[in-house]
Structures are given as C-alpha cells and as structure tokens.
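Input record, target 12 of the design panel.
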C-alpha cells in the first residue's frame, strides 16, 4: 500500500469523488483522490502525495475553475469546509484559506471597518481570492491585495512560508502564488478604515443589488469567463458586439444577461464550455483584433 492509501484509510480520504458539486459551474468529473483536511493535516497530506508522485490541486469554492468532466487524475484538496477559522487579532483579521469572502466582508463590517465591502458579492474563499487577487474592475475598483497584510502558505517545496502582500506581486487577477504549487493555509488582513456598521451595511446592500441587476446570479456560472483586455473595453462588450450573447454549445450558453458570463443550463460538460470559449475568442479576434484571455483556470 502506498502512503496516500494508508492516509486514506486513516483520515477518511475519498476515492473517485465527484467534483461538480464543489464548483459553481456544477461541472467536473471525479477526483482520483479527494480530501478536506484540517490545517494540521495539510502538510502530511501534501508530503504523502509528493512521495507517491500524485499531482495536487487545491480548490476553495470552485468559483473560478473549469474542472474536466472526465475527472482529475490526482489529489483534490478542498478548503471551504475544513479551513474556516476567522478571528480578529488586534487591528488584523486572521482568516483560514477556506473562509468565504462574503463571511469575511460581513465580519469586517460587524467589527466596524470599511474596505472589505467589495468582497461581499464574490462567492470564493480567502485562498482563492489571495492567489488570484480577486476584486472589482467596475463599480468601485479594488482588489484583495489592498487589504491583505500577509499570507501563510506551504510552498511547492513543502516548506511553510509567510509572504507579505508585496512579496506575492499582486497584479490584475494574478500573483506569483497562482500556479506555483503553493497551498495557502491562512491570511491576515488589515483593519484600517473605521466606519459606521450601519453605513457599511447600506453600501454593501447597494453593491449586491447592482450585481443582481447586471449579473446572472441565479445561474450556474464562474463569474467573468475572460479577463478585461488591457486598455480596451470590457470583455463582455466585445462578446456582445460580436453578436454572441445567448449563443450556446449544448448545455453551455453565453449569458443573455452578461456576455462575459457562461451559464451551465444543466447538463453542460467542460468540453461544451471550452468549445464555446474557443468560439468566443476566435469571433472576437476576427471582428476586433482583440485576443481575450481566460480568467477561469482549467483543472484536469
Ligand atoms: C457569481 C460569481 C461572481 C464572481 N465575481 C467575481 C468578482 O467580482 N471578482 C473576481 O475577482 N472574481 C469573481 N468571481 C470569480 C471567483 O469567485 C473569484 O476569482 C474567487 O477569488 C475564486 O475563489 P475560489 O475559492 O472559488 O477559488 P477556486 O475557483 O476554488 O480556485 C481558483 C484558483 O485558486 C487556487 N486556489 C484556491 N484556493 C487555494 C489555496 N488555499 N491555496 C492555493 N491555491 C488556491 C486554485 O488552485 C485555482 O487555481 C465570481 C464568481 C462567481 C461564480
């Protein structure tokens, strides 16, 4: 028996476990191995995977990924249910990687601090938001790095490290943690702008109402499919002007409400979404000479 199999017996690891329920697109076949470890179980698990030569994928809320419908041949670690500690430490908030962003935003507001409102409508986790530098480019532009103090992670060499916000080189939907093989364990955020909880609550509700008006929040999606092209118009503008709103590939459809969002109409596969994305990229490029880049990450 290899290491990961003995851990499976000892710690309730699951085998061939369906991933679709762990993504907001509701797309994804089974993971060869699946785990929801506590913080102290992470390192032994990662070591076992390394020794066995098993690839590791970390998922938070699965709200920015397209998981292959054929499944994932590796270990998928999901943080959203087991890494969920959230507390105030003086003028900082300490949040485990699996803490949801709406929960973090509401916590900061309840403590009487502004600056986290932009996170309330983003359905991801702290880990996902930190590595992607999630945020807003419209309404009130702001990204996760603006409130991040530092992040605790296990790096690709399986060494526990602490990195400041500047050290992870945050950019537009990127940091040097993304795709590096590092696993975020928790992050610390700065409480800087004191504010009236009532007022913050009102601003938050306004922001959510604005999102509801413009975004298909009642559908299975992964938010924006493509990044905003540099210096140009928003990605959704190009897709809409290219006449692609509402077009589909089997169960995957360009949202009639917001052209940069792709909806799963119920039975979409990852191949349907990929085909639709390819069609969008080709059509927009042919029409405007603009190359759209995926914001969502592919997991296979
Ligand atoms: C309705 C909706 C609205 C959205 N609105 C926005 C928005 O306004 N702004 C925005 O930026 N995004 C938005 N998104 C996309 C998404 O919610 C964010 O990008 C979010 O930060 C992703 O977090 P997650 O936990 O779901 O990450 P996942 O989708 O699970 O993972 C995304 C990437 O992060 C990595 N990752 C996740 N957790 C960890 C960890 N602990 N350690 C290391 N790597 C990790 C994964 O390996 C993967 O590469 C939206 C999505 C939806 C469905």
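The sequence produced for target 12 reads:
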């Amino acid at each position: 028996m290899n290491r990961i199999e003995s851990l499976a017996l000892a710690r309730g690891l699951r085998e061939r476990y369906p991933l679709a329920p762990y993504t907001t697109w509701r797309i994804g076949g089974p993971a060869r191995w699946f785990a929801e470890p506590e913080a102290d179980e992470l390192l032994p698990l990662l070591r076992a995977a390394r020794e066995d030569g098993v690839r590791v994928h970390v998922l938070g809320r699965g709200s920015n990924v397209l998981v292959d419908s054929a499944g994932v041949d590796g270990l998928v670690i999901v943080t959203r249910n087991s890494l969920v500690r959230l507390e105030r430490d003086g003028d900082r908030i300490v949040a485990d990687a699996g803490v949801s962003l709406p929960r973090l935003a509401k916590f900061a507001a309840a403590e009487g601090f502004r600056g986290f409102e932009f996170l309330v409508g983003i359905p991801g986790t702290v880990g996902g938001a930190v590595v992607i530098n999630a945020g807003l480019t419209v309404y009130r532009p702001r990204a996760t790095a603006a409130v991040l103090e530092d992040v605790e992670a296990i790096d690709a060499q399986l060494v526990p490290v602490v990195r400041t916000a500047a050290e992870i080189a945050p950019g537009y939907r990127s940091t040097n943690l993304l795709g590096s093989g590092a696993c975020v364990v928790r992050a610390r955020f700065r409480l800087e702008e004191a504010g009236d909880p009532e007022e913050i609550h009102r601003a938050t509700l306004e922001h959510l109402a604005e999102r509801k008006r413009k975004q298909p929040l009642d559908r299975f999606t992964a938010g924006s499919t493509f990044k905003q092209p540099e210096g140009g118009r928003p990605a959704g503008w190009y897709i809409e002007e290219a006449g692609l709103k509402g077009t589909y590939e089997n169960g995957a459809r360009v949202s009639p409400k917001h052209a940069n969002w792709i909806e799963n109409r119920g039975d979409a596969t990852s191949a349907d979404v990929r085909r639709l994305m390819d069609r969008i990229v080709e059509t927009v490029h042919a029409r405007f000479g603009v190359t759209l880049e995926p914001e969502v990450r592919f997991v296979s």
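Residues 24, 57-65, 79, 97, 122-125, 127-129, 131-132, 134-136, 182-184, 217, 221-223, 297 surround flavin-adenine dinucleotide (CB under 6 Å).
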